[in-house]
Amino acid sequence: MRKPSVSVVFIYALVLTSVALLLKDPHRLLPLVVFNVSLSLIAGLRKVWWLYLLILVASIGIFTNALFFANTGAVIINTGFLVVRENALKAFVTVTLRVVLIAGVGAFFVALFEPLEIIKGFTRELYMPASISLSLSYALRLLPLLRRDLEEVMFFRSQRGYRRRPLSFGELSSTLSALLITGFERALWSGVSLELRGFRNYRPSHRVSFNMCDVLIITALTAQLIYVVIA
């Protein structure tokens, strides 16, 4: 079965991200969150599970922020040293649902496509300049390389008798310097390679083709927008 168009899924994610930022009622956000998180997990559980783990960790900060800036109204929880009031709980739930919805549609987009497919889709379907598409493609491909470089730096630190994980300012500085130098050299030679391959004269073709998956995604987006309006 063919994948949906990159442009359709991108617009789907963009519209629902805007909806997440505009909605303030957690009861209206919850069905959208459940639907889109389920979609992302079905599309690629192995690719996106870590994103929800990060949100779980970030929710601690969201809860702390709500306690400091929105802890008013009726008392909901009182443990003696901690008092949680109605508005703090509502703010925590609302912000968390917004974050999860944005992450859900983003994870759905990332789970469906490889970085190269995303860049080709942006260039061919959304008429994005090839130079910008190249920058995005390079950034997406650089993330796993940075992780590998960091692991190598930590390995060599341990081989030389230093702590594997840098903690002091000097250790952090030396680690980041090594990563920056490696990244700069990689970017330099990547640019040289592209020029030798004739990137300056590259003229991408533009075309948009729809299939049944696109129709289903557009239908799902329309249904969710109708729900937001009438709920």
From TrEMBL:
Gene Ontology CC: plasma membrane
Name the UniProt record assigns to this protein: Cobalt transport protein
Keyword NAD belongs to the record: no
Keyword Membrane: yes
Membrane-spanning ranges: 6-22, 51-84, 91-114, 126-146, 167-189, 209-230
Source organism of the structure: Thermosphaera aggregans (strain DSM 11486 / M11TL)
CDD domains given in the database record: EcfT
Lineage: Archaea, Thermoproteota, Thermoprotei, Desulfurococcales, Desulfurococcaceae
Topology in the lipid bilayer: Multi-pass membrane protein
Subcellular location: Membrane
Keywords: Membrane, Transmembrane, Transmembrane helix
